[in-house]
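Posting for a labmate who doesn't have an account.
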Amino acid sequence: MSALVALLLAVAAHGGDVPPVSALPDFYRYQQYNVEPYIRAAVALQSLDRATALRRLHEMAQDPNADARVIVLCRMLFAPRLGGEFRGPLIGGALFLRDTSYSDWPLEPIEILDGIPFLVVTGYILAGQPEADKVYLRYAETHADWSTVRYTLKTAEQKREALEKFLASPKWKQPLDASDRKFLMDQVQ
């Protein structure tokens, strides 16, 4: 069953509520990452009042299989405070595409372009335990603000247009090869 079908079934089962964390693709399995379920979850969370959305995020973060899915939502739904820092998650040393680095992707592990959260890492190197989703969510609540950016569902054409912009980004330090392009194109399928 595709991730999108699973997400739609999960949303239907919850009466239109925010889907369970299990309906979001595991970005550690980067070849399975897809932007659509994360956009849908962000739209659903933003349709709630802030307190309810945060309560729902905390419920999701308690899932022992969250595996950084809530971290991705935090990177989408929170923004740095004026003059403050909104650090990335402590989940290991990121392996970025094409010799890019943390300074190129301040929202690591994602880059948001036209409201679409593209995954910019192919994995992490970690010695020890990664920061838990619930710990990062508490950090975001304490050190960042709820974002004023509103997510909307995207058409296939809008996703393709954003992908084309992303593929042409000046951030890439080397030309993207065929496997890099496939990695990014698969995210909007």
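Reply:
Got it, the structure tokens are right above this. The mean pLDDT is 91.
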